[in-house]
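=== RUN LOG ===
request id: a7f3
mode: sequence -> structure
chains: 1
length: 346
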Amino acid sequence: MSHLTSRRGLLFGTAAVSAGALLAGCTSNDNKDEKPAANDQPAADDKPGKHVTIGFAGPQADHGWLNAINDNAKNRAKKYSDVSLEITEGSNDTAAQIGQIETLINKKVDVLVVLPADGKALTQVGLKAMRAGIPVINLDRVFNTPQAYRCWIGGDNYGMGLNAGTYIGEKLKGKANARVIELAGIDNLELTRQRTQGFDDALKNYPNIKKVARQAAEFTVESGQAKMAQLLQAQSKFDALWNHDDDQGVGALRAIEQAGRDDFLMVGGAGALSAFQAIKQDNGVLKATVLYPPTMAASAIDLARALGQAKGIGGLAEFEIPASITLYSAVVDKDNVDQYMPTGFR
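=== RESULT ===
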């Protein structure tokens, strides 16, 4: 069993049963006349079953997290001898991605896993697949209507900001007139607004803390460095920084080092391997990162396989997979970083 399976419990937040038990323990519903009682222990089902062809379509992997999404999907599919993966090249052009998904529909794949470049723009092609009898796992960026997918699985952007703000709040709760700043992602994305809202809501619980500055970057190393340099120049004194994205955080850390600043703590976002390594070394400003786990793509493959084989999820009383699964944005710091290190993406 891979580390992705054994660590699946990391992904599903405060659920009492780990996702490893839920997803690896899929149970067959083939015999509709003899369904097990709700409290029956389902049989584990990593052993081969009906062959399932899964179509996977995502945006262009021009970012560490998106590349990790593709790698997680590919590697997870290889674990199953009864799964074939049809993966598209990936595109940030919505028309091109729609065309790629329509090709998969025409190939009559059994299940589709789609991480849309733009959820709103790709809603119609999700509906087209569902109406063609091809169930869709909508990964992360959600379509406009639940009619366009059978199951949504993705990260918790609001929770990401909430947990980052709470971590910082607890670290600074004994400090009078504490000042924090925020290095956000791309402001025209709903996910960025959700992360900021969660962060701001968390800080409301700490009246001693004031957010004094915010800059939006572009999820790139270059933008992270440039925007962080601007923040450092404008803010001669602050106590904490929350950076939404570990990729742009690489650039932010460069700017911090160049400025010779070490008088604050930094919390990152997403779960890059470089961030985990810096947290473990504990010799710089980066003290924690808040997860947005790309292992959701591996879980999406598990869910697609279960759908294709008409199975539910072991550990739940229901006979069907859930309609939505929101992953938990755990805070990783030096106390638990070793546990999460195998999930870090490059």
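=== NOTES ===
The chain has two domains: 3-155+294-328, 157-291.
The first strand starts at residue 52 and ends at 57.
=== END ===
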